[in-house]
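Researcher: We plan to redesign the surface later, but first we want a full-length starting point. C-alpha cells attached.
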C-alpha cells in the first residue's frame, strides 16, 4: 500500500465513531438473512445446470426428434447446450448495469422484492420445459434467472453494506459470498442421481429455484429499508430514524444520523453521479479502477478452471465416485468462506485478499507441475487433489467474498449505485468470456493453462499491494474523503469542491 493512504488511515482511526458493542439485533439478523436468500438462489442456479447436463441434452434430442422426425446433429446439440449455459451470464451481464437505476427508483428493499418476479418466471419456464417439450423455454428461463442474479449481485451487497454497523460491515458483507457458495453446494447435492438428478425429477431440480424467492417474499415485509437510502436519497429523516432504531435496537440514534447527515452534505456537493460521469470525473477514477480490478481478480483467478479439471483429476486418483470429491470441494468452498467471515474484521480486507491471491498462485503452480507429471508419477494425482482443495480454500479467504462488498465501501452514497453497476457488469462480462473461451484455452495449453492464471494472479497481487487501501473500521465518508485527499492515489490533491466542479463541467458539456 502506498504510504500516503496508510498515513491517512492511521490519522482517521482516532476519528472513527466508536461502537458501544457488536450491534447485532434480531432485526439486523433477519434483514441480512432475508437479503442473502437472493445470493443463495444465485449460487444454486450457477451450480444446478452441470449435474443433469446429459439428461437435459437427451431431452433436447427427444424434442428435436418429435419436431423434425430426425435426431439432432451433434453440433446443433452442442450449440443449444452452450447457449443454455451461457445465456445465464448474458442475462446477468445486462441486468447488472441496471442496478443503479433500479435501486434508486424502487429503493434497495423494494427492488429485491420486485426482482423476485424474474425468479418466478425463470424457475417456472425451466421447470415446465420438459412438459412443454421446448428447449426455448429452458433457454428463456435461464436468461431470466440470469437477469435476476445480475440484479442480486449488486442489490444484496449494497443493502447489506448500508444497514450494517461499521464494525460488522465486512463480516456481514461476506455473507453474500457464503450464501452463494452454499447455494452451489446445495445444487451439487440435489443434482445427484439418487436425489433430483434423474431423468424424471430434473425439472423439479431446476424449478426448485423459486423456493428462496417465496421465503424472501414472506420475510421482507418484516425488514426495514436501508436508512441511508431513506435519508440521503429520499430525504425522509423520520423513516430513516425508525429504520435505524429497528436495526440498532437503540432509542438514541443521533450518532448514526449525524454520520449520515455529513454523508448527505457531501453528496449534495457531489450531485447524483451517472455511469458516464463516473468514468469522466477525475476523482472517481482511482476507486473505480480498484473496484473493477478486484472484480477481475475474482473471475480471472482460474477458479472455474479448477472446477473444470477437478472431476478428471479425482478420477485419475482412483476415486470411483469423483462427484462426491467435487461436492467435497464445494464443502471446502463454503467452510473457508466462514473462515473469511470471522477474519475479515480482524485481519482486514486488503490482507485477506493478498493472502488469498498468493495462496492461489502457489497452488496454480503446484497444479501445473502435478498435471504435467501425472502420467509418469501416479502420486501426483494426490498432490493435484491437495492443490485443488488449497486453491478453493484460498479463493474463499480473499478473492471470493471481498470484491463484492468492498465496492460499496470505496464510494460515498452519490456514486455508489453507478459504481456497483459498473463493477457487477465487469464481473458478469468476464464470467461470460471465461465460460466461452476457457475450453479453447484448455485444449490449446493443456495443463499449462494454470500458468496463465498464475501470471494473472501475480499481477492482481501486485496491484492489490500497491493500490488497494484498507477499509476496515472506516465509515463510508472517511473512505471517500481519503481518496479525495490522498496525493499518492491521485495525481494531485483534490479539494472537496472539485467533485461539484467536475460534475458541473459534465452538465455544461
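Model: Full-length starting sequence:
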Amino acid at each position: 500500500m502506498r504510504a500516503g493512504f496508510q498515513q491517512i488511515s492511521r490519522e482517521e482511526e482516532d476519528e472513527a465513531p466508536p461502537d458501544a458493542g457488536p450491534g447485532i439485533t434480531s432485526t439486523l439478523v433477519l434483514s441480512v438473512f432475508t437479503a442473502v436468500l437472493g445470493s443463495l438462489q444465485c449460487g444454486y442456479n450457477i451450480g444446478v445446470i452441470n449435474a443433469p447436463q446429459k439428461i437435459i441434452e437427451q431431452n433436447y434430442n427427444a424434442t428435436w426428434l418429435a419436431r423434425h422426425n430426425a435426431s439432432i446433429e451433434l453440433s446443433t446439440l452442442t450449440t443449444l447446450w452452450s447457449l443454455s449455459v451461457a445465456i445465464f451470464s448474458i442475462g446477468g451481464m445486462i441486468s447488472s448495469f441496471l442496478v443503479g437505476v433500479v435501486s434508486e427508483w424502487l429503493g434497495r428493499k423494494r427492488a429485491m422484492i420486485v426482482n423476485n418476479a424474474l425468479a418466478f418466471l425463470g424457475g417456472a419456464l425451466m421447470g415446465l420445459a420438459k412438459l412443454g417439450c421446448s428447449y426455448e423455454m429452458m433457454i428463456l428461463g435461464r436468461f431470466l434467472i440470469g437477469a435476476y442474479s445480475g440484479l442480486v449481485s449488486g442489490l444484496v451487497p449494497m443493502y447489506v453494506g448500508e444497514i450494517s454497523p461499521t464494525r460488522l460491515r465486512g463480516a456481514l458483507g461476506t455473507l453474500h459470498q457464503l450464501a452463494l457458495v452454499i447455494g452451489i453446494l446445495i445444487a451439487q447435492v440435489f443434482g445427484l442421481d439418487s436425489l433430483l438428478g434423474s431423468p424424471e425429477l430434473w425439472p423439479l431440480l431446476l424449478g426448485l429455484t423459486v423456493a428462496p424467492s417465496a421465503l424472501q417474499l414472506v420475510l421482507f415485509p418484516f425488514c426495514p429499508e436501508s436508512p441511508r437510502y431513506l435519508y440521503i436519497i429520499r430525504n425522509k429523516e423520520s423513516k430513516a430514524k425508525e429504520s435505524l432504531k429497528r436495526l440498532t435496537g437503540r432509542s438514541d440514534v443521533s450518532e448514526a444520523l449525524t454520520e449520515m447527515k455529513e454523508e448527505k452534505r457531501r453528496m449534495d456537493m457531489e450531485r447524483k453521479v451517472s455511469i458516464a460521469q463516473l468514468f469522466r470525473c477525475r476523482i472517481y477514477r482511482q476507486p473505480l479502477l480498484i473496484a473493477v480490478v478486484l472484480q477481475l481478480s475474482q473471475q480471472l483467478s482460474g477458479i472455474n478452471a479448477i472446477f473444470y479439471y477437478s472431476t478428471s483429476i479425482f478420477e485419475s486418483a482412483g476415486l470411483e465416485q469423483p462427484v462426491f470429491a467435487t461436492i467435497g470441494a464445494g464443502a471446502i468452498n463454503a467452510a473457508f468462506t466462514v473462515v473469511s467471515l470471522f477474519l475479515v474484521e480482524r485481519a482486514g480486507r486488503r490482507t485477506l485478499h493478498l493472502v488469498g491471491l498468493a495462496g492461489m498462485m502457489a497452488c496454480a503452480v503446484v497444479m501445473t507441475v502435478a498435471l504435467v507429471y501425472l502420467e509418469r508419477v501416479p502420486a501426483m494425482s494426490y498432490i493435484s487433489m491437495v492443490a485443488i482443495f488449497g486453491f478453493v480454500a484460498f479463493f474463499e479467504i480473499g478473492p471470493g467474498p471481498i470484491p463484492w462488498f468492498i465496492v460499496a465501501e470505496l464510494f460515498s452514497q452519490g456514486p455508489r449505485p453507478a459504481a456497483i453497476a459498473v463493477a457487477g457488469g465487469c464481473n458478469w462480462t468476464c464470467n461470460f468470456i471465461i465460460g466461452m473461451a476457457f475450453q479453447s484455452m484448455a485444449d490449446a495449453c493443456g495443463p499449462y493453462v494454470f500458468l496463465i492464471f498464475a501470471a494473472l494472479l501475480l499481477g492482481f497481487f501486485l496491484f492489490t499491494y500497491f493500490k488497494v487501501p484498507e477499509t476496515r473500521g472506516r465509515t463510508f465518508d472517511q473512505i471517500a474523503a481519503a481518496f479525495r485527499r490522498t496525493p499518492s492515489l491521485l495525481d494531485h490533491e483534490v479539494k472537496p469542491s472539485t467533485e461539484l466542479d467536475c460534475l458541473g463541467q459534465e452538465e455544461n458539456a
